[in-house]
Amino acid sequence: MINLHNVTKMYSEDAVALKNISFAVKSGEFVSIVGQSGTGKSTIIKILIAEERPTKGQVEIGDWDITRIRAGDIPMLRRQIGVVFQDLKLLPAMTAYENIAFALEVVGALPRRIKEVVPQVLRIVGLEDKAHRYPLQLSGGEQQRVVIARALVHRPKIFLADEPTGNLDALNTREIIDILKKINSFGTTVVLVTHNREVVNQLRRRVITLNGGEIMSDHENGKYVL
Amino acid sequence: MFLSFARVVRLSLQQFHRNLWLSIATITLLILSLLTVNLVVALGAVSQAAVTVVQDKIDVSVYFKPEVSNEEVEQVRNTLLKRSEVKEVAYIPKEGALARFKERHKDDPVISESLQELGENPFGATLAVSAHDPEQYPKIIEFLEAPEYKEIIEEKNFEDHRLVISRINTLMRNIRSFGLGVAGVFGVIAILVVINTVRVAVYTHRGEIRIMRLVGASSWFVRGPFLFEALLFSFAATILTAAVVYLGLYFVQPHFDRLFENVSLSLIGYYSANAIFIFGAQFVGIFFLTALSSFFAVRRYLRV
């Protein structure tokens, strides 16, 4: 499903985010990518959604070689990947419902489909009763759930979550991880980027550990080893 | 297609409404830029009117010898009228010249007696020739200096006017150059103001543009609301500018009439006669500029 071959990302000569990393993620897998801040975890997510291009190496998602993706094809790629961003990226002037519907509107979905899908994803993340609240009227955990709901509307085969529990308390963190597990149980491949030790250890799934831009370890049923 | 267009329009109206103060500020700056353009247009019309008034007062009087018949003079007149540079030729026949002279000196018995003693009309016919452009007078004079006319023409007063005409020509050229210079400077200022205004408006939406891109919006779906907003801004700015211009002219016209007593120019009339062209060109220009500015300003944030 996802293949990275000898990927290097350099922002400048002395700012190397990723050094020659290779790994593959199978369809339906739940993989955690862990490591301390600045080890290139978020760079991997950015490369997977073509927000950044690798300096060297090759990245494939399904049949797409996204290292050679044309600018015009990037929106098509992004419609097939659900992404939860570290900084949420919610539109403050739109309600939770509108933020989620917006992701469907921009791809030309029919109003009937929007009316059908948005309440469904709101139900999955448990926010059906707060659909018409603005982001500022929601707690951090609720905002994060809106972002997850928005990432789900395209029924993606791949779900990328970049530090989704970064600013949440233990209870909200657990709820978010439960939602990710639920998404994975539908057969969706989940890639979770985090530096939360407890989350990774409780998950007991595959863990790829990055250190200084390189893969330090890659274990099935792994633990946070740093 | 229609659905996407409808969403672009809705997003654009939402943008306009949710950032109402920014929208008002943008339209205000566009109006100020357009008012600058209109100031140059109005000054151009006034200076052109003033020059036309002076121009209309210039003509070349051609005095024919008394023995030349009215028919011969008529022939010269017809030939002159066929020339492209000639605008008008006023014909004063011999009898008319005499009558005019008598009228002018009716209170002078000596002159009346002298005329009676002469027994015949001592005046020749006169042609007053006006050109379309003062710069064309030398051509007309050159034509009248042909040998066949030299014998029948007693006098031409072009020499008296040569200096005045030359000065007017220089003045007109200077006014045109100055007008173009002023229009150029104000035009550049207006363009810079518009570009900067649009950049600020787009900058405030940079977060939304980024989010739209990351959730899979195509470039044109992101650009659409900004282009439609440019259309709204341009339309509103042009209509409001037209209102301000007409209101301003309504108050300025009486002062203008007093200041230039001999110049009959209704600026309101001038604007009304050319409204579609003046405001149409301004609308097209400002829309083209705002759309182009927004295209480049948005492009910067599309690189996500």
Description:
By secondary structure, chain A is an alpha/beta fold. Chain A has 7 helices and 10 strands. Chain A folds into 2 domains: 1-80 and 159-226, 3-Layer(aba) Sandwich (Rossmann fold), CATH 3.40.50; 90-155, no CATH class. Helices cover 32% and strands 27% of the residues of chain A. Chain A is globular, with a radius of gyration of 17 Å. The mean pLDDT of chain A is 90. Chain B is an alpha+beta fold. Chain B folds into 2 domains: 2-54 and 168-302, no CATH class; 66-151, 2-Layer Sandwich (Alpha-Beta Plaits). Helix content of chain B is 76%, strand content 7%. Chain B has helices at 2-18, 20-57, 70-81, 94-104, 109-118, 137-144, 147-150, 158-203, 206-214, 219-259, 267-273, 275-302, and strands at residues 60-64, 86-92, 126-131, 153-156. In chain B, helix 2 packs antiparallel against helix 8 and helix 2 crosses helix 10. Chain B is elongated. The mean pLDDT of chain B is 83. At the A-B interface, helix 2 and helix 3 of A face helix 1 and helix 9 of B.
Chain-wise SSE layout:
The complex is a heterodimer of chains A (226) and B (304).
Chain A: E1 2-12, E2 15-25, E3 30-34, H1 41-48, E4 56-61, E5 64-65, H2 74-78, E6 81-84, H3 96-105, H4 111-124, H5 140-152, E7 158-162, H6 170-185, E8 189-194, H7 197-203, E9 206-211, E10 214-219
Parallel strand pairs in A: 3-8, 3-9, 6-7, 7-8
Antiparallel strand pairs in A: 1-2, 1-4, 4-5, 9-10
Helix pairs in contact in A: 3-4, 3-5, 4-5, 5-6
Chain B: H1 2-18, H2 20-57, E1 60-64, H3 70-81, E2 86-92, H4 94-104, H5 109-118, E3 126-131, H6 137-144, H7 147-150, E4 153-156, H8 158-203, H9 206-214, H10 219-259, H11 267-273, H12 275-302
Antiparallel strand pairs in B: 1-3, 1-4, 2-3
